[in-house]
Amino acid sequence: MWYEKELKFCRTILEKMNLQVLELEKDKAPDRQIDFGVRRFFSLQAEYVSTFLRKPFEGETRTIYKLTDRYFCNYLHLILPGESETVLLIGPYISRQLSYEDLLHEAERFSISPQLFSEIEVYYGSIPVLADDSFLFSVMNTLAEVLWGSSRAYRIVDVTEKDISPHPLSPEEELLPMEQTLLTMEDMEKRYAYENELLSAVTFGLTHKAELMLSNFSELALKHRVADPIRNMKNYCIIMNTLMRKAAERGSVHPVYLDQVSSDFARRIELISSQTTAYKMMKEMISDYCRLVNKHSMIDYSLPIRKTLVCIESNLAGNLTLHSLASLQNISSGYLSALFRKETGKTLTEYINRRRVRQAEYLLRSTALQIQTIAQFCGFPDANYFTKTFKRYSGTTPLEYRRSRQHDADGMPS
What CATH code would you report for 303-406? Predict the structure, then answer.
């Protein structure tokens, strides 16, 4: 191909953005699932073939198509010039990070059971997020002008999956070595003393003290260690994320809580576009990790109770019987029951029901999910039992609770 070098350069840029770039040949299946396997998960092979293996080859030449499918994923594709029929496809990517509540709505829309919900979380967690795809289109416009001569020689067309379909992990960048990204030797003692004090503040959940120290962090640590100032700030954010995670772990916060926060920051760090944004994110890290310590520290609990609490918090919809939780740790049900009540002041059943009802209250306030769906995702497969338990702890039925909160939000008396 006469444009091989330009195409390779374009591919390199896009892959640096963690985007998948494929050259699809007609009548030849690629060696990977283009959509990361979501249609295979829903057993929609015909939709997959139509969307990715047939319709892109039926498009017009000199046209860049932006496809937005019903799973909120975006793809760009175009027919490359030349004798062989080859389509260049970029994606998927999503325009915003989906929240837990968004995914619950999707689970309800596609009738996904609570047992399979974690797979949907993993799927969307693996898709790159481009809150602003203007740079992506700048790259594509540049490539298009190389391929077709000028900006007037091609067009960009937005399509949705219903227009073309019969059916309505990026590797993480390694941390730079500490000596390459922090201060030089003459500042090291001072930096270590500051760093340990900051870690101690986060370990004990002292939010105000830790945030106050951030100004010192800016003075001591945020010197330019690489030529690109944005890359420099990203490197410091990566380090900060690691330090805060370790500090919260020292504060007896279980990794199951840390991983979600840490992974979210890791994704957001690569989207940083200014030094101001990076500095704000560092402050947000301190606040969020201190909040984790204050909310989830289990320093006063024995190991069996720590494990039990983590099991409960990580899977409220799961099988949380006394027998199952005891069996996971190879201890007797009687021992776990007595120990749990001694250390928490509540029976295991009471604690679980309270947590499930609190989660249900949150979903009733913040989502439009059906009450039956909320019951299932809060561990109540029987709607009548959910209503009865909810009323015991909240003093009202789920429907009445939702209506009263809607009235409150509208400024009306409940």
Answer: 1.10.10.60
